[in-house]
């Protein structure tokens, strides 16, 4: 993870959040905020940010003022903070769980933080590495953003690649590329060879 200056995540679980807390590699845009109770924030577009949660996260909540705050450990752990917020206050995390790409875009467009993250992806001009994702139709909005960006090239990780997997993925990526009217090239690599969690 340390070799990337910007990370976009589609997973709304806490794995990347915990890794980033432990390694302190990437700033997440909450650095200008303050801690209030079990939350820190709000997220600020003016804060240094290198980690974008494209589909939100279980640790992200919307304040009454519509700002995005992140859950912090106040002694009982982040999961306890999240559980308390749901059970005691009836508030739910900001994340995208809808089924189709169209439904996901509707959710993204309803939250300023999520729109901002997708806009940053659309503005990406660096080489893009995709790790741990299948390129399924329900995330077509992500691939429209990538192929509509200024990225130099896409490297797509495939777990245990074989001819069938590569043909299927090539068909999906070629379709997204054509839909976007893009000439951005892409290359497949064996995701088992990538040591993304090493610093």
Which key terms come to mind for this protein?
alpha/beta; single chain; globular; four-stranded antiparallel β-sheet; three-stranded parallel β-sheet; about 200 residues
Explain what this protein looks like in three dimensions.
With 199 residues, the protein is of the alpha/beta class. It has a domain at 123-193. Helices cover 33% and strands 16% of the residues. It contains 6 helices and 9 strands; from the N terminus they run βαβββββαααβαβαβ. It has helices spanning 15-23, 78-89, 101-109, 112-122, 140-147, 163-179; strands at 7-9, 34-36, 39-41, 51-53, 60-62, 68-71, 128-130, 154-158, 186-190. α4 (112-122) crosses α5 and α5 (140-147) packs across α6. The N and C termini lie close together (6 Å).
Compact overview of the structure:
Helix content is 33%, strand content 16%. The chain has helices spanning 15-23, 78-89, 101-109, 112-122, 140-147, 163-179, and strands at 7-9, 34-36, 39-41, 51-53, 60-62, 68-71, 128-130, 154-158, 186-190.
SSE order, one letter for each helix or strand: EHEEEEEHHHEHEHE
* Total E-strand runs: 9
- Please give the alpha-carbon distance between the first and last residues: 6 Å
Number of helical elements: 6
Inertia-based shape: globular
Radius of gyration: 17 Å
Order of the strands making up the biggest sheet: 2-3-6-5
Kindly report the average pLDDT value: 91
The fraction of residues assigned to DSSP E strands is 15-25%
Decide which structural class fits the backbone.
alpha/beta
Low-confidence stretches: none
User: Helical percent range?
Assistant: 25-40%
- Main sheet makeup: 4 strands, antiparallel
């Amino acid at each position: 993870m340390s070799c990337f200056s910007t990370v976009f995540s589609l997973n709304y679980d806490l794995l990347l959040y915990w890794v980033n807390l432990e390694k302190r590699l990437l700033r997440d845009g909450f650095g200008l905020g303050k801690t209030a109770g079990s939350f820190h924030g709000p997220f600020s577009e003016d804060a240094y940010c290198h980690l974008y949660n494209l589909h939100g996260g279980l640790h992200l909540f919307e304040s009454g003022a519509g700002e995005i705050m992140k859950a912090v450990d106040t002694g009982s752990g982040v999961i306890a903070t999240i559980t308390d917020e749901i059970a005691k206050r009836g508030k739910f995390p900001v994340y995208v769980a809808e089924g189709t790409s169209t439904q996901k875009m509707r959710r993204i467009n309803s939250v300023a933080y999520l729109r901002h993250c997708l806009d940053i992806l659309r503005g990406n001009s660096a080489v893009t590495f995709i790790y741990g994702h299948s390129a399924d139709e329900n995330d077509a909005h992500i691939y429209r953003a990538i192929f509509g960006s200024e990225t130099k090239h896409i490297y797509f990780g495939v777990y245990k690649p074989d001819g069938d997997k590569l043909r299927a993925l090539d068909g999906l990526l070629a379709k997204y590329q054509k839909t976007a009217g893009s000439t951005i090239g892409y290359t497949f690599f064996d995701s088992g060879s990538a040591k993304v969690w090493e610093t």
